[in-house]
Amino acid sequence: MTIPGMDKLKAHFPEWNSPLPRLLDALIGIMSFAAATTAMITVDHFFPNWTLLGQAAVFGVAFTILSRFFLKKTVLTAGLGGMAYRHAFRTYVVAGMPMIIAGIAHNAYLPGDRILSGYSAVVVYLVVAYLLITGVVMYVRAVFTFGVDNLAMVYVYYPEESRLVNSSIYSLIRHPVYSAVLRMAIAVGLWHGTWFSILFALLMPVGMMMWLKLVEEPELIGRFGDGYAVYCRNVPAFLPRLRNLSRFWRFLISGN
Prior knowledge:
The protein has one domain (6-254). It contains 11 helices and no strands. It has helices at 6-12, 19-46, 51-71, 73-80, 84-106, 118-151, 154-157, 176-192, 195-224, 226-234, 245-254. The protein is mainly alpha-helical.
């Protein structure tokens, strides 16, 4: 099965045509994931009352690393030219993104007792099922609708190569990939059902909105102009409006 956008991504990573460079980059990601996980488990074991702070610290470090991908673009492009994207992706995304994944996964084994039981647990588990199903389907749809080149943020460094993605989902929510990740992250926290996991799950959208407002959307406004700022005011970031739920489900089911 051909994944859309893979050819574009490999065009900027020609060394990925050989297995060893791919393996080395994967190893960096695995080490980053392992380091973040080890740090959180250490806090869980020795300072269980501070587990939420340890998890927040991992997210803070990850967001700081990932922000450099955007904030250092001008400097890297001036200094490295055509190599800037490859350097930025390997230095910041490959190192930072696994830490985000580790933090989300940590929500599944945070210390503490489950606080849900009886009918409340049934209701929450139904919400978990809804969030998980819609999150997974939306993420898969995003990969095949937008391509891995967009997901890997190739066009932050190569805006002249960007292609128009004509999808109805952009009229419903601004960031479908982030929406998918948030749904899965919240589902994990609610499913685990401790005070810490539920609180962190509910704080995830706040953190993601701060990321958008401080880092990613200023870059998009700089790239696309004031029209994108108007778009931000008119279209929600993560959740479709109630009147658009039927169109949202149509996208999940058909991709249109």
